[in-house]
Write a structure and sequence with these properties.
Helix content is 28%, strand content 32%. By secondary structure, it is α+β, with helices and mostly antiparallel strands. InterPro entries: Acyl_CoA_acyltransferase (IPR016181), Bact_Acetyltransf (IPR050832), GNAT_dom (IPR000182).
Length: 149
């Protein structure tokens, strides 16, 4: 398994984001109906197994101190192997290298496995923020990153 940086325009990243969005729409019963595309200002990491990207996650800067984890997704056939946990750690390292002291994220109340992952990895619930404020199914989390010595 390899975790590598990929541009937002990478076709495998685009395919993973589309799969993630489709799965979210199915999980939430089509509640929001929005299809989100990749953004150029998100730095993506891909998890590559046997030459194929099987998972992705992104990091977007909210401000100098805060990075937001975006588009975390692991293809169903690769779940349960610790890939998401390793990808989240790599995204936290990327945030740290970019000078962020806090990483935050949003997920849905209908995704208990995601909530379990984030809380197990040290994320604490925070008030819903930004574009998620008016979504009754959004829950947000944050984690303070270690300070450089």
């Amino acid at each position: 398994m390899l975790i590598e940086s990929r541009p937002a325009t990478d076709p495998e990243i685009a395919a993973l984001v589309i799969a993630q969005q489709r799965e979210l729409r199915e999980a939430d019963g089509g509640l929001d109906g929005q299809v989100t595309v990749t953004h150029d200002d998100i730095r993506y990491l891909a998890v590559v197994v046997n030459g194929r990207a099987v998972a992705c996650g992104g990091l977007q800067s909210i401000d100098a101190a805060t990075g937001e984890v975006k588009r975390m997704y692991v293809r169903p056939a690769y779940r349960g192997r610790g890939i998401a946990r390793q990808l989240l750690a790599a995204l936290e390292e990327l945030a740290f290298r970019q000078g962020h002291s806090v990483v935050c994220l949003e997920t849905g109340t209908y995704l208990p496995a995601a909530i379990g992952l984030y809380t197990a990895c040290g994320y604490d619930p925070i008030p819903v923020y930004g574009e998620y404020v008016h979504n009754p199914y959004s829950v947000c989390f944050a984690k303070r990153l270690p300070v450089a010595a």
